[in-house]
Amino acid sequence: MATVKESYDRAKEVKQFEDSKLGVKGLVDSGITSIPRFFVLPPDALSGVRRRPNQDVVPIIDLSGVDSDLLRPTIVENVARASRELGIFQVVNHGIGVDFLERVLGAIGGFHEQPPEAKALLYRRDLYRVSFFTDLDIAPGWRDTIRMVFGLGQQDVDEIPEIIRNEVVEFDQRVTKVGEVLMGLLCEGLGVKTERLKEMTFLQQRSIFAHYYSYCPQPDLTLGTSSHTDAGGLTILFQDQKGGLQAKYGEDWVDVKPVPGALVVNIGDALQVILYKSKKFNRFCGNFDLIFVFQIVSNDEYRSAEHRVLANSSQEPRISAAVFFNPGDVDSLYGPLPELISTEKPARFRQFTFTEYRKRFMTKDLDGKSLVNYYSLSE
Ligand SMILES: O=C(O)CCC(=O)C(=O)O
Ligand SMILES: [Fe+2]
Fold first, then answer.
1. Which is the closest atom of ligand 1 to the Cα of 209?
2. Which pTM does this prediction carry?
3. What's the rounded Cα separation, in Å, for the pair 85 and 319?
4. Could you say which DSSP state residue 219 is in?
5. Strand order in the sheet with 234-239
6. How many angstroms does the Cα of residue 4 sit away from the middle of ligand 2?
7. Distance CA 28, CA 7 (A)
8. Whose CA is closest to atom 1 on ligand 1?
9. Complex ipTM
């Protein structure tokens, strides 16, 4: 049990770290050889960290035939199967060239490797501004992140640091096209019309999280990103070739192994797991406009994948860029698609608007239930 003194010390150390605005890279550059205590994770969060996981479970799906009447049904089937069984898969031949993707990661590296003063100006957690921070709450870990919003609620583009601006703006545009293709495939996999998710505004708001995983001197004591599911509907991520991203598969962790030019796709439903785990939505996730429940929309057909990133034990940084797709319309009713409900498959969740949902969470008006149980119709 943590004593009052210990938790006080933790708070103090965290505050010092936050006030420094240096992020993890700042700590590493200062020459530390052990990690601050508040980065040390409990043993159950580190399960299997030293084991060599299975490399070949997460499917790699070739999208090159999406426009072919002959090939599309097989692609739909592959995407739907991966989304039902794992909630995570990789896609190749998605239309974005590897040279461009590598340029994006290069620019992100350039941002994080600037002098500390340049980044400190952006050290904050503001959902409507560009923010640079180290996540110590939702999926804490040994990494720094710069986050930007695109589409509805977007910050002024000029606020994005020039060193990454052109690259991330184009990355957003090109990944959104891939997102549209994938949402179409996911709809067809559910047997609903291709544009269904698009019409429900699920392409209208995107957040980009550009991560930088510095060398960690004690990689067995922490993670780069703790286990979580994503707080967006669908996530599309480009990772470099260093490795470390893992997905939960049954009781095991499996590698999402780097494949040159491949994009990693996650079904996000985050909501449930994050709420159960951290029992809080903090300032970072407190904006419910940014959350939608893909699992609810698919009536539990598709599942979100629990995933994590190992702490980086090599001197070279690991860099990744994730695009989270969120609904633009927060006042419409969300719930299982009516087309998916039948007497054999009754609705598992009831409908809600995101505005109502946020209010309910903020005022804790939940009849003593967790938010997810509140909307669940089972039991
Ligand atoms: O860096 C990665 O590979 C994963 C990051 C991630 O899971 C996230 O941003 O939600
Ligand atoms: Fe994630």
1. 9
2. 0.88
3. 27
4. T
5. 60-62, 88-92, 263-267, 234-239, 318-326, 205-213, 144-151, 131-133
6. 32
7. 24
8. 320
9. 0.99
